[in-house]
Amino acid sequence: MKADPAAQRRLLDLAEADAELNRVAHRRRTLPELEQIGEAERDVQAKRDELVVAQTSFSDLDREVRRLENEVDQVRKREQRDRELMAAGGPAKQQEELEHELQTLARRQGVLEDEQLEIMEQREALETNVTKSREAVTEAEQRLEELQARRDEALAEFDVAEQRHREDRERIVGSVPADLIKIYERVREQRGVGAGLLQGSRCGACRIELDRSALNEVREAASDDVVRCEECGAILVREKQ
């Protein structure tokens, strides 16, 4: 196959445009923020789970505090009733029974108040834990949002670069004969690189040196001959054609 040497040299520009597109795609896939976002999302979920546990423990203890408060209130009301009955007077036996019940209520109230104090101290500690857990969730969410913003900014830049290189590629393709482009595209799909500059005896596409006989054939070819690398099949573009 033959093609104008200038058209063959345009393939180097096309190969560079494709290389830039590959680099953009690689940078998009390996963007550090992608892995960091995954870690941040897991951290947010873990912090949210910890908050749920802390809130559940606090709620359970809060219900226990209210239960004890109700019991203490009932004991106090019973005590008030008994004192009113004693104040009203009555048979000695009844007075004795009321006095005994008041002593029992006093002991019960003391036990309940001790339990209430202990649990309220625990609730206070759990409330602090809930506050810290909530702050940890907020901090983790903010970190995630920052990473997502950085990712979106980087991806937007990649989109711009990719569009520019695609436009360059389309412009180059339009200036090269279709049959030459067809060979280039076929090789690129199979090997990744469709054309390379012959640098001394080395193929610019696969970076392998041609053996003596292959190199002689390339050098003896006419300037408009389309020559291929025997190793990778890429179109070899010669500097002086």
Automatic annotation (TrEMBL):
Q: List where this protein forms a coiled coil.
A: 51-164
> What InterPro entries does its record include?
CT398_CC_hairpin, Oxidative_Scav/Glycosyltrans, Zf-RING_7
* C4-type zinc ribbon domain location: 202-236
Keyword annotations from UniProtKB, A to Z: Coiled coil
Give the CT398-like coiled coil hairpin domain ranges: 14-192
Protein name stated in the entry: Zinc ribbon domain-containing protein
Note the superkingdom of the native organism.
Answer: Bacteria
